[in-house]
Design brief:
Number of helices: 3
Oligomer: single chain
CATH topology of one domain: TolA/TonB C-terminal domain
Strand order of the largest sheet: 1-4-5
Order of helices and strands: HEHEEHEEE
CATH class of one domain: Alpha Beta
Structural class: alpha+beta
Length: about 220
């Protein structure tokens, strides 16, 4: 064999191997892999079944959010008044109190106990003019007054002294007829009385003495 043939043989083998590889690659790309047989699925139609009605669970109503309270800022502490600061226009300056002289303390003496209340004075017994031993005469009925039909009641204010005599006499109420009044005054002025008494003592006393003038009296 010639030298040229020996050198070309390896090159020919390499080309042949490359050609076979290309053919194998082309065959693999052109042919698809075998498809496996598909399974046959048969489905039947079932009648509709009623589904149970289930109420959805009630969810709790969320509470409304509480409004956030803003913290109150602390009030600044008032500054102490400066000694040199001028007074406020509406400030009222009280007049300085004058010093009072200090007086020496005097020992207080204990107050004496209150004296007992004096006993109430005894009641006054008014005078009397109807005592049997007095023998006071009744006023004489004036004859003219009887003829004229004059009658009435006289009231006399008499100041009876402590000895029972009349100190003063006044007409307190008239009978309406002067003759009857004058007879009453002149008669009672000479009477004697049991004097008024206060306890064991006889006292002077104003006393009202009534006198009746009646035509029907016996």
């Amino acid at each position: 064999m010639s030298k040229l043939t020996r050198r070309a043989l390896p090159l020919l083998l390499i080309c042949t191997a490359h050609l076979l590889g290309l053919l194998a690659l082309a065959y693999g790309l052109g042919s698809s892999p075998p498809t496996p047989p598909q399974a046959v699925i048969s489905a039947g139609v079932l009648p509709p079944q009623p589904l149970p009605v289930v109420a959805p669970p009630s969810e709790p109503t969320p509470a409304p959010p509480k409004p956030q309270q803003r913290p109150t800022p602390p009030k600044p502490a008032p500054l102490p008044p400066s000694k040199n600061a001028p007074p406020a226009p509406d400030a009222i300056t009280a007049p300085a109190a004058e010093p009072q002289p200090v007086q020496p303390e005097v020992a207080r003496a204990e107050a004496p106990p209150a004296p007992p209340a004096p006993p109430a004075p005894p009641a006054v017994v008014p005078p009397r003019s109807d005592a049997a031993h007095l023998n006071n005469p009744a006023p004489a009925y004036p004859t003219l007054s009887r003829k004229l039909g004059e009658q009435g009641r006289v009231l006399l204010s008499i100041y009876v002294l402590a000895d029972g005599t009349v100190g003063e006499i006044k007409l307190k109420q008239s009978s309406g007829f002067s003759r009857l009044d004058e007879v009453a005054l002149s008669t009672v002025k000479r009477w004697k009385f049991v004097p008024a008494r206060q306890g064991d003592n006889a006292i002077a006393y104003w006393y009202v003495q009534p006198l009746n003038f009646s035509l029907n009296a016996g």
